[in-house]
Design goal:
Elements: H1 4-13, H2 17-26, H3 47-54, H4 60-67, H5 77-88, E1 92-94, E2 101-104, E3 108-112, E4 117-120, H6 125-140, E5 160-172, E6 175-188, E7 195-201, H7 207-225
Antiparallel strand pairs: 1-4, 2-3, 5-6, 6-7
Amino acid sequence: LSSNLFFCNYSLRADSKIFEKYAPNFHIGKLTGIDITNEAAGQLSSPDMKKKLVNEAWYPGDNCNLAIGQGYTVVTPMQMLSWVTAIANNGEYIEPKVAEAVLDEDKGVEEEFGRTVENNLGISEENLKIVREGMHQGVQVGANGIGGTGGYLKGSGDLSSKTGTAEATVKKDGVWVRDTHAWVVGFFPYDKPKYSFVLFLEGGGVGGNDAAPIMRKFIDWFIDYEKLSFEQ
């Protein structure tokens, strides 16, 4: 069961500028600010961008593609992780960091990098709660139940997740062919989120069947290794 139909139907009734309104809050098309080099900013599909890239008009179908992350939208795994973390944190967009502190062998901690809240997503608490509940139910009743492919993640931990399958054109052996990238993002535990995750498989198939089982095995291992315990 795909959620694409819902979001596509919504997009056909909405103004495409609603995406442009909230995109800055999600830092779409911007660097996340993570403390590593060579980060890519990605881009958000829009009428102006389509005109610039292919010199074509914007059609209703483009709204549909925009709503499900297709079309000319390009994002990085770190951006996806930052967004799902913000959803888990009730709308707080936190600047991601690799380094926690700078240590000196003799002096100890020289500099600590604290938690930096860049902004709020600007989405109501009620709507964020609906999103979190949807991600949670997608895992808890998905796959073998009445829900979607998030059920392939059901295992250790009280997970909330969203899978995705992105269609793309890639070059293989000198020939451009259609392919799919597999995505899965999420957070846990549901009631008091502490961890968020993302897995991107370039040309790796589909989110539910391919990415989710791999992520589930890693999370099961992580919970066991860290000796974590969550009520479900």
